[in-house]
Write a structure and sequence with these properties.
Elements lengths: L5 H15 L4 H8 L3 H13 L3 E4 L3 E4 L1 H23 L5 H11 L8 H13 L1 H10 L6
Antiparallel strand pairs: 1-2
Helix pairs in contact: 1-2, 1-4, 2-3, 4-5, 4-6
Bound molecules: manganese (II) ion.
Length: 140
């Protein structure tokens, strides 16, 4: 696995902190399959960038700016995953891997446009089924 980018960290921190409001370096390291030292280094960097705050004994949590960014990055992953799933592009695992590869190239300012398409497809299943049926075999 390649080194997770800062965006991967923020996305993972969003997932980890969504329920409890905070996370620990050890949880982050486990989720990203990296060493605690690497996770700790990035947490420091994100803290210096104003995206995380430390809470003694509890670990770290997002600042409002960090939370906004993390939420957007997580939403971007989900939207792309939904789109590739609608396109029946592969197994769940395949699609996850593809999204991990391409998501960083999608500007979050364009999320809404892709989100609209994904929602439209969900709301018009008959129309979408017709589209898939009409397409090349490679779609299936
Ligand atoms: Mn992702």
């Amino acid at each position: 696995m390649s080194t997770p980018s800062q965006e991967d960290y923020l996305e993972a921190i969003w997932v980890l902190t969504d329920e409890k409001g905070y996370a620990r370096v050890a949880d982050l390291a486990e989720r990203l399959q990296i060493s605690p030292a690497s996770a700790s280094k990035m947490v420091r960097r994100l803290h210096d960038a104003g995206l995380l705050t430390y809470e003694r004994y509890r670990g770290f949590s997002f600042t409002p700016q960090g939370r906004r960014t993390g939420r957007l990055l997580y939403a971007r992953h989900q939207i792309l995953e939904r789109l590739l799933t609608q396109l029946a592009l592969g197994s769940r695992e395949d699609i996850y891997r593809i999204v991990e590869g391409i998501e960083h190239h999608f500007d979050v300012t364009r999320l809404e446009q892709i989100g609209r398409l994904v929602s439209y497809i969900d709301e018009h299943p008959d129309w979408w089924a017709k589209y898939l049926d009409a397409g090349p075999d490679s779609l299936h």
